[in-house]
Amino acid sequence: MTPEVHRLVPHVTDGTADADTVTWARAMQAAFLGPRMDAGDLARAAAAYAGQRLRGVWETADPAPVATLRSWDARMTVPGGELAVDAISSIGVRSTHRRRGLLRAVLVDDLAEAVRAGTPVAALTSTQGSLYERFGFGLATWTRSVSLETRAARFRAPDPTGRLRTLDVATLPSAAAPVQDRARRRHPGSMDRDAGSWTALLTGETGWTGMVPDRHRHAVLWSDATGRPGGYAVYRVARGWAETGAAEVAVLDLQATTPESYRELWRHLASLDLVGTVSWSEASVDEPLPWLLHDPRPLALGASRAMLWLRILDVPAALAARRYPVIDRVVLRVHDPAGHAEGTWALDTADPVAPAASPTRDEPDVALDVPALGSLYLGGVDPRVLARAGRLEERTPGAAGRLARLFAAPSVPWNGIRF
Ligand SMILES: CC(C)(COP(=O)(O)OP(=O)(O)OC[C@H]1O[C@@H](n2cnc3c(N)ncnc32)[C@H](O)[C@@H]1OP(=O)(O)O)[C@@H](O)C(=O)NCCC(=O)NCCS
User: Fold this and answer.
1) pLDDT > 90 in the chain, percent
2) CA angle 28, 32, 33 (to 5 degrees)
3) Domain count within the chain
4) Whose C-alpha in 86, 91, 169, 268 is 20 to 30 A from the C-alpha of 73?
5) Residues 324 and 291 both lie in one domain
6) What lines the ligand 1 site, CB under 6 Å?
7) Host H or E run for residue 385
8) In terms of domains, do 80 and 180 share one?
9) Are 402 and 328 in contact (CB under 8 A)?
10) Is 137 tagged catalytic?
11) Do residue 154 and residue 293 come from a single domain?
């Protein structure tokens, strides 16, 4: 029998969530092996869920759910525009209740509601590699770590430009939010930050830290010569200088709206006194940083790691929401066992400002499963590579190459916010 899924609406008063939301949050935390917290701390942590959708499966006579899922409406950058997405997180099942279909129940229910609401794409970041493909998600962005030995770093542009200002973390959102909103539009896959996400970034007070504040966070804002803010960095001292004389700094977020702001923020980080290493674990796989340096050797680049998974729910709406660099008409046969994206679709980019995707009876140029479409969507993977991997079938010779030119993105997709 399919488990019954229920919705919970969080009520937040004066920064504190209601008792049902707190019980839900405690159950979710336990599924992720999070720290135990008292009810007051949990109620403050759960306040971040204001305005979001909480789902769960409850058993009779137990106030705590045995399965949880949280989702909210987010904005995601796509090539040439942005798109409403159903952002999904907090999928957890009580350790005594696993492998009985509870994850499936809450996720299928959430996706069905997103379809009813007309949300064309769902997005999540995953702790597990292959878990979500069976639900139609395809891996769409990657991230990797960068680590700079700052004392050996020499910038090609010799002189700093613009102006840097340290920010009090408490006032940072008002200064940084408009910058983040502009900066994220440069990277397909980037998403907006809600109030809870800003608080987590700035104070470190989240459920995962047991609401213990992180007092080692710093923030800096860069403005150009006219005084217009162009970028910010938030970082924490991961290991102090006392033992080694060279502290380790971890970048938590760095958003830049121009090449100049990017360069000056990195120059600032590289010039911090008492610091030996600056690392960023969620950087893009194509950071310009190596190219800013005379010698890239002080910079260590980590292996790329999976980041954002996308589930296309409405093919015409999703395909029409982005822009394409070339004019073409390609027919895609999409296989989706859940039905949402199932069909044969013609993507026509004859009008570059209003591309159209519609059902067609024409013979397909390519055939693919819906996860592969999610992977292609932002331009993060070359369709010819998917064809070589047997994940995309070329029905018309050369069609994968045409798709590669059509879906090419203006910059490598990147989402620096793990949720
Ligand atoms: C991951 C988790 C949510 C799975 O919940 P569950 O209720 O056991 O999953 P279900 O029974 O609904 O399984 C759905 C499918 O996923 C598969 N699956 C479940 N957990 C899996 C895992 N860890 N790795 C690979 N496959 C998995 C099941 O075999 C099943 O496959 P099927 O479609 O072929 O039948 C649960 O183990 C959990 O809470 N883990 C800790 C928190 C966590 O990691 N959450 C995921 C965050 S991204």
Assistant:
1) 93
2) 115
3) 3
4) 169
5) no
6) 31-32, 91-93, 98-104, 126-128, 131, 134
7) helix 383-388
8) no
9) yes
10) no
11) yes
